[in-house]
Design a protein that fits this description.
Helix content: over 70%
Number of domains: 1
Radius of gyration: 17 Å
Number of strands: 0
Number of helices: 4
Largest sheet: none
Strand content: under 5%
Length: 149
């Protein structure tokens, strides 16, 4: 169980840290006067997402569910576990529905020679991933304080 908890915490740390870094890079790109900064951000997001954030959320989900299954003290009916699963689902849905659409538009911007409003796309990305980060931070609070247990 200790190793599962360790992996769960590492996964959450990577997910939060990677997301925080991307948000900072996105803010910098949006404020830059160099139009290539927006295109580079649009290239970095899927690269980091597939290689860092995706594996991190998979580790968080698998180890979290596994810990509840093997623990005598934790149950899927407990409020803090339900909150954690709900927050995970919210983060996943925002990512799958909203962020994937914005990401597709960012990729089109990279491949397009026409001037598109890259700053607006990056702003939309920042808004969506900001929501994901809030959900993750509330989930961390939930893991620490375990309300209802």
């Amino acid at each position: 169980m200790v190793w599962l908890k360790f992996l769960h915490i590492v996964g959450a740390t990577v997910w939060l840290g990677g997301g925080s870094t991307l948000i900072l890079v996105g803010i910098r790109a949006r404020r830059s006067s160099d139009p290539n900064a927006l295109r580079e951000f649009a290239r970095v997001v899927p690269y980091v997402g597939m290689r860092l954030l995706g594996p991190a959320w998979i580790v968080v989900l698998i180890t979290g569910v596994w810990m509840v299954l093997v623990s005598a003290a934790w149950k899927f009916s407990q409020l803090w576990v339900l909150l954690a699963l709900g927050l995970f689902a919210l983060a996943f849905l925002v990512g799958a529905v909203y962020m994937s659409r914005v990401g597709t538009q960012l990729q089109r911007m990279v491949g397009s020679s026409q001037g598109s409003d890259g700053a607006a796309l990056v702003r939309r990305w920042l808004l969506g991933y900001g929501l994901v980060m809030v959900a993750l931070l509330v989930a961390v609070w939930d893991m620490v304080f375990k309300p209802g247990s």
